[in-house]
Amino acid sequence: MSTSDNVPHQGHRPCGEPDLPADAEVLAMAELLDTLGEHERAAAPVGFEERVVAASRGRLEGPRPIPLSVQRTPQRGSGAWLAGARLAASVSLIGAAAAVWVASRGPVSSSRPDAMAAADPDEVAVEALLAAASFDSSLSGLDYEIDLLFADTATFDASAPDEPGIDPLLEEDSL
Amino acid sequence: MLEAAGRGDDAAWRELVRLYGRRVFALAKSRCGSVEMAEEVTQSVFVTVAEKLGGSGYTERGRFESWLFRVAMNRIRDEARRTRRRAGETPAGGFIAATSDGDLPDGEHERELGRLREALAQLSDVDREVVELRHHGGMSFKQMAEVLGEPLGTLLARHHRALRKLKALMEGTLRRTPAEVDG
Prior knowledge:
The structure holds two protein chains of two kinds.
Chain A: H1 24-42, H2 48-56, H3 78-105, H4 113-118, H5 121-135, H6 142-159, H7 167-170
Helix pairs in contact in A: 3-5
Chain B: H1 2-6, H2 10-32, H3 35-54, H4 64-87, H5 108-121, H6 125-135, H7 141-148, H8 152-175, H9 178-182
Helix pairs in contact in B: 2-3, 2-4, 3-4, 4-7, 5-8, 6-8
């Protein structure tokens, strides 16, 4: 495919393209470049077009759509699903109750040690777990475990009544 | 033909590859140097074109050739960047110089083409693209303006300047003796 006839030069204006002044050297260079272009096009190896067709023809259907990967999970039985739902509902309810309870207490002064004791997060957590256990049968037995923990804690406190705890530290202003 | 090819018509698609395949190949070979890489680039260009034609990605009705060569130039530039990262930047903007496909020229005309390839590799990327789209891709200046997004006058001037530069580079190459080349 020759393009030298389109190279801008004086006296010839093919394809409606504007010309720039060109001399014989530039025209000769354009012809040489045309020859190089033909040479490069002819350098395509045997079977080139067949391989291009083979590589690309299958893509004419467009990018392969990703199949919908919505798969129904196997039925696990309504009991398990209901247990999950109950647990989620319980957690939500407990969260809301805890938020209401904290809000109803109003701001507490950090200089009062009894305020810290009243807001013991362990108690809140225990209450939350007990409430969850009341909603969810899958947590049955949890209250018994918690009772045991309380009993162990009480036994531990009784065994070391004179040991200094952290209460004096709490009264330090620096804390 | 485009519509037929887009519908999966085998004959139409073959005709498109026949019309444009070697032109894309020549562009890629000039930039990448090797026949194998040029064929790989050409295949990937036509894979992209097929996907766009077959799907809904081809929206530039009436300007298929410009669009195809824009896809090709983007792919060739990507490959050029990869090659540069692997081999390190070569001077004067060319990243593959001369005939790396091993076809050593045996006549004076072939030697002249070899010198022209060397000179082409020393042009800046922008000048080189104009020359290659014109003479390897066989495009009109109007189509080149669409592909490169440049005004027609700018491309005409750049092409003219690039040809003068090539001439000067080749004369410089011609003046070098074999001893200078070896040394």
